[in-house]
Design brief:
By secondary structure, the protein is an alpha/beta fold. It has one domain: Rossmann fold, CATH 3.40.50.10490. The chain has a five-stranded parallel beta sheet with strand order 2-1-3-4-5, sandwiched between helices. The protein is globular, with a radius of gyration of 16 Å. GO terms for molecular function: carbohydrate derivative binding; isomerase activity. This is 6-phospho-3-hexuloisomerase.
Length: about 180
């Protein structure tokens, strides 16, 4: 079991080494400058998006998740963070088109630059990881389906939140105070 765990970590490190730092920094800057942040993804990508939104909320950002009942309309000055391994998820493509028509920016996390969402995006981080539709010969994985993409997205988006907040004094205490206390 431990051997499998270490192999997964090795794979994730290899994927992370392929990421373009300049694109991550630009993406992070757009998130930081947005009036409001909207996050959209389906399935497990949606779960990774919700995790990102929760971290941003705890850090004091004005953030919403597409599909929740309290999500307002997107407007100019806002950004949509779209997460789609294939870059062609129909509902996310529809959300991106609406966001673009409303004057909002589109930030994409995907494996597919040359995709429908890739053509709509203002900024994009390409994660060279396996999805359920695409396997990378140069980055083989022992993991099924899109596990490698999902895990890489989670770590990347957590790193972005850390980068956005690391200069803030007592950020852990601040985020802890923002955490749900209705348990």
């Amino acid at each position: 079991m431990k051997k499998i765990h270490l192999k997964i970590l090795e794979e994730l490190k290899h994927v992370g080494e392929q990421l373009e730092n300049a694109k991550i920094e630009s993406f992070s800057s757009k998130v930081n400058q947005a009036n409001r942040i909207f996050v959209a993804g389906e399935g497990r990508s949606g779960l990774m998006g919700k995790t990102f939104a929760m971290r941003l909320l705890h850090a004091g950002y004005n953030v919403f998740v597409k599909g929740e009942t309290i999500t307002p309309s997107i407007q100019e000055g806002d950004v949509l963070v779209a997460i789609s391994g294939s870059g062609n998820t129909a509902s996310i493509r529809s959300n991106a088109k609406q966001a673009k028509n409303s004057g909002a920016g589109i930030l994409l996390v995907t494996t597919a630059e040359n995709s429908d969402l890739g053509r709509l995006a203002d900024e994009m981080i390409r994660i060279p990881a396996a999805t359920k539709y695409r396997r990378h010969e140069e980055l083989p994985t022992i993991q099924p389906m899109g596990n490698q993409f999902d895990q890489s997205v989670h770590i990347l988006l957590d790193a972005i939140v850390i980068a956005l907040t690391q200069s803030r004094e007592n950020i852990n205490d601040y985020m802890k105070e923002q955490h749900d206390n209705l348990d």
